Batch of 2 targets.
Target 1
Amino acid sequence: MSVNKEIKRITVHILQAMKKRGEKISMLTAYDYSMARILDEAGTDVLLVGDSASNVMAGHETTLPITLNEMIYHASSVVRAVKRALVVVDLPFGSYQGNSRIALESTIRIMKEAGAHAVKLEGGVEIEDSIKRILSAGVPVMGHLGLTPQSIYKFGTYTVRAKEEAEATKLKTDALALQEMGCFAIVLEKIPAKLAKEVSESLYIPTIGIGGGPHTDGQVLVTHDMLGITKDFQPRFLRRYLELFDTIKDATKQYINDVKTGDFPNETEQY
Ligand code: KIV
């Protein structure tokens, strides 16, 4: 199915209508202006300014170190590039957990200073107060269940979540609770496809999967993984559409060679 050109600007209501009519939702991460322009022009429905910027852009091992100021910088660059996509911004670790007033203050900064359209928070019923307070200010909230990387030190590994019945049951309860609270969509990360299907079918709001199989209402990938800019990360769920690490490296080697040999710049590449 090609991009729906009738849609001028994606809203949370359009995403819910897409679920209703069985149209899959495409979501990718974006952290900077130039890449966001390309992804938006291609017709990506949702651009997520993910806290994966902590890994991909800053080289940290986890998503925990990225700050609210850094997220606002990335988000404002993305928002300036976008004409059609809905821009969702991750609330970073420490900017919402355990204190709904801080959660609202963080959200207001993201909405005012970056011009974002919605925020995403990791977790279920334990962050209900924060979600409700953000929603009461009129800001759309996307949930995130399953593998929630901000809790990596609690999990211990990045392996598939909710394989055991108790965790699967909690995830199903959390998904319904997030819907009940008023979230407009939920990311389901790295859970069994069967569970993702069951959860997606139990909700009227869309689910966006990453490593959750084909039955979620949409899919998301980290753009740098999808384009092969990152090289060492090869989980089973990832499909690489390019090998840009090697392409860019080869082009760079060619440039270096041209500089060293005096081939660049030539007669037409000067004033
Ligand atoms: O930060 C991120 O990129 C994410 C996606 C993997 C869903 O949360």
Target 2
Amino acid sequence: MSSKKNVDLLVGAQWGDEGKGKVVDMLGSDVDVFVRFQGGANAGHTVISDGQKVVFHLLPSGMLYPGKLCVLGNGLVIDPEQFLNETGELFAKGQDRARLAVSPHAHVVMPYHKMLDKLQEEARGKGRKIGTTGRGIGPCYVDKYSRSGLRVEDLLDADVLRERLTYILDEKNQIFTKLYNQKPLPFDEIYEPARKWGEALAPYVDDTRALLRKAVDDGQHILLEGAQAALLDIDHGTYPYVTSSSTSAAGAFTGTGLAPNDLTRVIAVVKAYTTRVGEGPFPTEDFGEDGEKLRANGGEFGATTGRPRRCGWLDVPALKYSMELNGATVIALTKLDVLTGMGGIKVCVAYERDGEKLTTWPNDTRSLSEIQPVYETLPGWDDDITNCKTFEELPANAQAYVKYIEKVLNVPVGLIGVGADRNQTINRGM
Ligand code: GDP
Ligand code: IMO
Ligand code: MG
């Protein structure tokens, strides 16, 4: 057993779409094993390398590196159709299929989960809907926790699948017909494709916990790649406007079977401003010209659903909360280039409620709807920074913005994104 562990956990620090995909890809040349541990195809992780753009929904963003192992851990909810589409596209481009491992304990997103996701959203209606990605994530995790789920291993044995699906589908059909006034789903229409998915998935299924344990003990470099982000965490996010998994650091352990003391570093990916897709509180959202400009300059449209992202300024109390929750040891600051030409850069440093000042993130939806952000304005810059290779090449005000973030969050900024391409990154010793 090697003496030194080398396990990085990378998590989103805001409401998702911080640029996690790009950072994973950028760090990837040095990584041996890439791991997804929670969520499913609700993620949209964009990687741009040599002008070529790939968006990963389910697979780890390290898939473009030849010869490296990519793992889908037990904490995922796997949509087999999406899995086959995504792998099919990559294999058509010549990627090696032998290096993908799927946990038998990951849950399967079934067609009825996606149907339920849409029906529940419609039933919630305006003012209550969450604005989900429609990928069946919530209903699949509900089934996991109510012990009515199908795991990948259940698809591998036709008899087990038939037995479990008979009971499960019967229950689902009660819900479809009695609650939502829909037609029942015929058994064979669900069973037959699921059996085929099992055959297609079988070559990838492996004991991922044991694989990862060995890789860690052998001193291999593991990168645990979070999807979504801390403020969408089922426990610690802006509930009920959250996703249905543990998106912050703790999810990496339940979602893989690794242990907390396996971790070496926690990389929090922070966008230089804030965005959010879907419904829910967002104190620093800018509804005016600045918000429009951030959306246009940052290309802020959902990588999974194409929805325009809501845009606004950096929220320091929210980020302090996120740093605490994740035990962040280093920040990857992304999209600094998008702030070029914005004029003064607003930063929320506290909130006001009924004349009272709050300096910490009030983590309940009601309080969040009652607060007003208190801003400081930092000086901006106009020079193009997209070709800067070192920190010193950045304009003084851009350097000052980075130093300000380090100071208020008390976490060093190790990487700075100045463009979408893998190479448009300033590495400050990561
Ligand atoms: P993820 O879900 O966290 O992986 O992020 P997304 O891929 O959904 O959204 C981030 C978007 O910003 C993608 O279109 C990336 O190509 C792009 N991006 C990432 N880093 C940078 C950066 O430093 N500058 C610019 N301009 N774009 C970036
Ligand atoms: P990445 O990994 C941004 C949001 C949805 C919705 C809520 C619940 O690309 O950062 P779900 O379909 O998960 O039940 O939707 O969570 N959401 C994301 N927002 N980036 C994501 O992933 C997201 N995944 C889910 O918009 O508000
Ligand atoms: Mg995304």
